[in-house]
Task: structure prediction
Amino acid sequence: MSQKLDQVKISVLLFSDCDAYAQHFTQSVLSYCPLTSIVHADSFDQVTTWLDAMQIDILFVDARMEKIQEWVRSIDNSRIKSMIALIDHSVSSSVQHDLVALDIDGFVLAEHFLNIALRLKEFCRLNLTRELVGEYDTMLQGQVSELFLLHKVVDNTAIMMATLDADLNLMTANESFCTLCHERLLSGKPLSDYLCGELYSHQIRPALGRALLGESVCVQSLAGISEQVPFVQMYCHPLYDFDERVQGVALVLNDISELKLMEQRYQEISREFTTLLNGISDAITLIRSDGTVAWGNQAAETVWNLKVGECIERSCCLSKTGGECVSASRQTDDGPPCLVQRCLARGEKQTELLQATDGRSLGVKVFPLLDDHQQVTGAIRIVSDVTESVQLKNEATQSSRLAALGELAAGVAHEINNPNGLLAMNNGLLEEICRDLMQELADCGGSDGSFGGFSFSDLEEDLPQLFRNNHLATTNIRRIVEDLKQFTRSEMDRFEPVDVNEVVLAASRMVANSLKKSSHHVRIFYAEDLPPLPGSFQGLEQVVINLLMNACQALTTPEQAIEVATCYDPQAQQVCVRVTDDGRGISVEHLDKIFDPFFTTKREEGGTGLGLSVSSRIIKEHGGTLRYDSQLGEGTCVTVLLPVGDTE
Result:
């Protein structure tokens, strides 16, 4: 306060008709109170002028002037804060009495300037005190108003609030807490009377004890505090006095019953929804707006080949080893190659058929998630394993092609057979005629002539070879026609019990000469107790012959081996025929085409490309499968699986 006092400025008006005294007054007062502003008036008109011109704190009136009572009576007291009379021994007591009646605030000896300065200091102190008291009164009124409003808010809130002393007796409680305790007057009563039992002793009392030690405690969920309030959230805060000592606890109970019930219902719905999604065979994933995986169902494990929990931070794409997107390497002019990125960028549904690294066909659909403002907030991706569907579609396409090819082959075989038979018959007749003509020419001495640019000796040597070539050509045409007929022929109606060992034995005898020329290491293993299966002996024999001939043609040296083995799988009830060679193998780009009709890499060697097509069709008619495993330069293994079924 002393600092504030030294900074206070006071406006003083001296009313005196003595200029010498006024000068002495000013110098003396300023030596004690340097911040005082002093003005002098020697007439009543000047006093009025100064009062109109400035705010005067103290008016010092020289009571030694004549007619002082009249002048004081004429001064407007409302325009000054204090008025003090300056007197000496010449001022009579009657004058002093009159001045008191005129509301003079005090008297000071005119020549005692120290007392005058003390009066100024006292005025400053009183004025500053009034100011501080006024500010404090205003602040106190505001705090009382705020406390009143706070009390109304606390008392009317649904949150249950109470204060406890150090012995955990209730001091105050709002309406909600009183309702919880079923009593209006709780002051001075132990909290344990209302919140009793194991809940109080095991959870509430320990939390209150920690708060008494100065710790703020929060218990997220308390169950069973009352029948009306099944779940509450409890807060315990220490109450301090002015010396920062804990004197009690503020207890807050928040009713979270509705929130808890909603949470339980949400968890139930979430479990049901998760169970439903996990029961779907399609891989479903939720993608965040930044392209990372937020959630995935169990089927997503099949797509990524890892646990869902391990792929949460993975990229949105279907990734290869090392995190590279399977679709990112493709070039496209239609936006980002990744479907998810394209969906997030455009906010439109995206679909595509992708080929996984393990050979599966994956149908991918990505749907955008939009907020109320139609802004993209994420995406849902559904990945379906459509391998079987694609295979069925390809098989259907292949079947339609084969059906059309079968109709064409039947017509072509008929049209080719007739002229080819005529050519074969005419070739034999022409050969006999030419042989007789050559004999006639030799007998009549025509051996020195020229015939068609050939000399007789050349013609005699080359003509038999020409007829043999014609015979081989017509025979080859007939074989191709027979293959075409076999390609379109179904023998399902002629099935009978067949011993596969006998089939392999008969086929190996048919191609024994080719096997002997192609390899010095031909091994055939026949399984014992091989059960018979329903089928066509001749059809299966043709399949084995085709496989053996392909094996012979694949070898590059006789030191390479060919191995044939039969076996039986009782669990699968299948008979297996396996033909293995150490030949040149089949390239990856050709492996997918070997069953296509007329596809062959041995066209120059007379291959027709129908052998494996016919074999594949025959095996399918028997309900079996024909599988090729081959690597270029490392040989080939062909496996035929035939179901045993019912041979009755």
